[in-house]
Amino acid sequence: MLPYPGIPQVERLAPGDAARVPWLERACPELGGISFIMYGEQLAVRTHDGLVVPYGQRLAEVLEIARQQSAREQAEAGREQAEARAEALAAQVRAAGLTPAL
User: Fold this and answer.
1) Is residue 26 part of a domain?
2) Labelling 9: which of 50, 73, 75, 92 has CA 20 to 30 A away?
3) Residue 5 lies in a domain
C-alpha cells in the first residue's frame, strides 16, 4: 500500500527538459522503455515487453522468474506439438492398415 492516500506524482527530469515531466504511464526511452504504473494500490514498474514489477521487488529476480516461466511454457508447447505429430503419424499408419508401434 502507498504510505499516503491518492495517486503518487511520479515525475522525471530528463536531459534537455526545462521542467519536470509527469512519468506515470509514460515510457522512458532513456531507461529502455520502462514506465511507472499503478498496480492495484501499489506503484510498479512496467518493462517495455509488458512485465509488471511491483515497487520493492528486485527486478532481476522477477526477470529470472519470467524467463523460467517462458522456458517452461515453450517446453510444454513443444511437447504438445510432438504429441500431435506422433498421433497424426500413428493415424496415417492405421489408415494404411498397419498397427503403429508406440
Assistant:
1) yes
2) 50
3) no
